[in-house]
Amino acid sequence: MQLYPIKFTPIAKETIWGGNKLKTVLSKKFSSQKQIGESWEISGVKNDISIVANGHLKGESLNKLIIDLGARLLGDKVYQRFGNEFPLLIKFIDANDALSIQVHPDDELAKERHDSFGKTEMWYVLDAEKDANLIVGFNQEVDKKIYQQKLDEGKLEDILNAEKVENGSCYFIPAGRVHAIGKGILLTEIQQTSDITYRMYDWNRVDKMGNSRELHTEQAVDAIDFTAEKAYATSYAREINKSTNLATCNYFTTNRLAFDKEQNQNYSSLDSFIIYICLDGEFEIELKGQEKTRVKKGDSILIPAELNNLTLVPLGKAECLEVYIQ
Question: Which of the residues 199, 213, 256, 294 is marked catalytic?
Answer without folding.
Answer: 199
